[in-house]
Amino acid sequence: MIKLLKYDLRRNATLLLGVTAVLILCELVLLWSRAALDVKIGFSVIFFIGAVVIFAINNLRVFDYNIHSISRRLLPVRTLSYVWASLIYGVMNTFVLVLIGAGTALYFGNHIDTFALREVLHLPAYAWTEIVLELIFTLIYGFLAFYVIIALARSITRKGVFWVGLLLFLVLSNVIGWIENLLFHQDSDPFFSLVTFHVEIKNGVVEHGPVSANTSWNTLGAFMFEALLCVVFLFVIKWCVEKKIEAR
Q1: Is the pLDDT of residue 217 over 90?
Q2: What DSSP line would sit under 102-131, residue for residue?
Q3: DSSP string spanning 59-111?
Q4: What kind and span of H or E run contains 141?
Q5: pTM reported for the whole predicted model
Q6: Which residue of 31, 64, 79, 198 pairs with 209 in a disulfide if CB–CB is 3.0 to 4.6 A?
Q7: Do residues 234 and 83 make contact, with C-beta atoms less than 8 angstroms apart?
Q8: Which pLDDT score, from 0 to 100, does residue 54 have?
Q9: Average pLDDT value for residue range 118-139
Q10: What is the average pLDDT across 157-171?
Q11: How many distinct helices (H) and strands (E) make up the chain?
Q12: What pLDDT shows up at residue 197?
């Protein structure tokens, strides 16, 4: 797995370093400019969305490349190594963006509302722990959901993989959302649902509420359900990859 991860990092180093360098440079130029604060925030969001899209597509292509070129491996690689290597690859790249985004957010938070910034920075330890763990879990769940779609699409057809994958994505997301809404009365999209901190800008005035921890059965149940789905996704991916190996 480590060798596969190093191979993926070396193969995509130019893209990863290039996007990271361009993002940092654009953010620094933007923050040091004399543009209005709302203009800075708008362009900063655009820059980050672009970087996130590039990194996400790159991670999915890395996983797709690994399982597509499985017959060309010179050394035997365990089936789930393709998943673990791609997951670590994606999480590492995402946390690079998170660190850059955190620095940018501190700048804007300091210029918009220092009281809100101090309140966020002084969140209790359990809140920060839950936020970090939920971020990691959300990344793992999201990547595995896309990995299982790619693996299934590659197993179903050789041509039109994109359209088959798109159909699988629509079906899978709607079915999971329907089940979670039926069982836990919420969809599969909540982010940071265990810890909430409300901030809203009205007429140029920042309004914010206290930190709250959500420990209801619906939230914890949905969390456990998605954790179970991660295990199911792993077994499905393993089956698809092994089926591909046997076919070759």
Answers
A1: no
A2: HHHHHHHHHHH-HHHHHHHHT--HHHHHHH
A3: HHHHHHHHHHTGGG-SS---TTHHHHHHHHHHHHHHHHHHHHHHHHHHHHHHH
A4: helix 125-156
A5: 0.81
A6: 198
A7: yes
A8: 95
A9: 76
A10: 89
A11: 8, 4
A12: 57
